[in-house]
Amino acid sequence: MAANIVTMKKIIQQLRLEASINRVKVSQAATDLQQFCLQNAQHDPLLTGMSSSNNPFRPQKVCSFL
Amino acid sequence: MCDQTFMAATFGPCDSCGKASPLMNIYIKSEAINYCSFCVEMMACQQLQKGETLQSLKKESDSLKKKLEEERGKLNDVELHQVAEKVEVLSSLSIKTRRVLKGHGNKVLCVDWCKDKRRLVSSSQDGKAIVWDAFTLNKEHGVTLPCTWVMACAYAPSGCAVACGGLDNKCSVVPLSLDKNENLAAKKKSVAMHTNYVSGCTFTNSDMQLLTSSGDGTCALWDVESGQLLQSFHGHTADVLSLDLAPSETGNTFVSGGCDMKANVWDMRSGQNIQSFESHESDINCVRYYPSGDAFASASDDATCRFYDLRADREVAVYQKDSVIFGASSVDFSLSGRLLFAGYNDYTINVWDVLKGTRVSILFGHENRVSRVRVSPDGTALCSASWDNTLRIWA
């Protein structure tokens, strides 16, 4: 049908576009992802576990009146 | 040589429309084309290239798809978890529930943090959106919306407004006022208009533009002030359930996922679908960018979460376990991107090691499905929204 032809042409155009993009090897991409994780690991409170004094959500130490 | 076209009369099903009728058997570039006379005229009017038929187009589409798979496959020289073998195994996490936010009368469907790292907005099936102070458990604002099932809510970057939408097919922006007596619902402004429910919304880098995803299969970018549609994004073939904006300052791309099992990456300015990923086996409920912006994760009803790298243009990890059989509804990354928090329909939150592909921890506590998980902007806490009418803060 005519409608199918138009849809198919759109699909083909989209596929051509997607096939033409520049790609990087997975080894390279994976290394970069890993590097990002490791670089930012110390600044990640959920990963390292912040101490009670810094994390506003963790229970505070009991404070006594002076 | 001679390229004459022969015309011979036969009767049978037309190659193009399938109807049985007298056919004109034409040979174009020595390929036999058996069209009925109507389709021959249509072909001429549509200016099809010589030799293009539905079959040839289909063949081209299939060969392009195969070529795409091959190109992607060529670069798959190693798996992510293999590259990450040398990375230290994570020690056990001490994440526990620190706050329980009670107040909604029905299932909590969505939550979003404010940039000030302590306020949250949550929306519920009861038709209300509540702004909370997560430190003190104070409810700062409550907005009643005219419809139930408010599936999407978002905090504006300035902290001065919230957007919410759902079954009313609209997304409205409500300015937050410090005046307790002011009726917030009166100042509500409808910004987005879709032809089906609004499943997700987010402000772009400013309070001025809103990006929405909808059950009508499209995503759209709106100007908040005028309500004008700035750009619409077509390409999904079923409901779009989730979207996420790329984290970079200059970024103008976003990713969306939907019931057609596809995750699409879009260019906001041109409306063009730049990349598409189809490896899930069921609806994609949530998509979320990796903090560096080079990758994104998705959660699906097929009980897996998957990790896609944008530069390699392929899936690089699958987070699944035989014991995990319920659909995943939501995902979010920790600040460094090492942990992936995923909320499931079996009431738990699984914490996955993004690099190694293993599960690090399970967070128990909710008494019904987890509908949304969100890490706070400074990474100190995780907020989860659930069908048990509560939200929990984990840290």
UniProtKB/TrEMBL annotation, chain A:
Lineage: Eukaryota, Metazoa, Chordata, Craniata, Vertebrata
GO term, biological process aspect, one: G protein-coupled receptor signaling pathway
InterPro entries associated with the record: G-protein_gamma, G-protein_gamma-like_dom, GGL_sf
Swiss-Prot/TrEMBL keywords: Cell membrane, Lipoprotein, Membrane, Methylation, Prenylation, Transducer
TM regions (residue ranges): none
Native organism: Oryzias latipes
Membrane topology, as annotated: Lipid-anchor
Domain G protein gamma as annotated: residue spans: 1-66
Family: Belongs to the G protein gamma family.
Cellular compartment(s): Cell membrane
Cellular component terms per the entry's GO annotation: heterotrimeric G-protein complex
Subunit structure and binding partners: G proteins are composed of 3 units; alpha, beta and gamma.
GO molecular function annotations of the record: G-protein beta-subunit binding
Main location: membrane
Name the UniProt record assigns to this protein: Guanine nucleotide-binding protein subunit gamma
Highest taxon of source: Eukaryota
CDD domains recorded: GGL (cd00068)
Automatic annotation (TrEMBL), chain B:
Family annotation (InterPro entries): G-protein_beta_1-5 (IPR016346), WD40/YVTN_repeat-like_dom_sf (IPR015943), WD40_G-protein_beta-like (IPR001632), WD40_PAC1 (IPR020472), WD40_repeat_CS (IPR019775), WD40_repeat_dom_sf (IPR036322), WD40_rpt (IPR001680)
Keyword field contains Membrane: no
Residue spans of the WD repeats: 101-133, 191-232, 233-276, 277-318, 330-362, 363-395
Pfam families: WD40_Gbeta (PF25391)
Keyword vocabulary terms for this entry: Coiled coil, Repeat, Transducer, WD repeat
Gene Ontology molecular-function annotations: signaling receptor complex adaptor activity
Gene Ontology process terms (BP): G protein-coupled dopamine receptor signaling pathway
Coiled-coil residue spans: 54-81
A single Gene Ontology CC term: cytoplasm
Family affiliation: Belongs to the WD repeat G protein beta family.
Quaternary structure (record): May interact with RGS9; this interaction stabilizes both proteins and increases RGS9 GTPase-activating protein (GAP) activity, hence accelerating the deactivation of D(2) dopamine receptor-mediated signaling.
Protein name (record): G protein subunit beta 5
Higher taxonomy: Eukaryota, Metazoa, Chordata, Craniata, Vertebrata
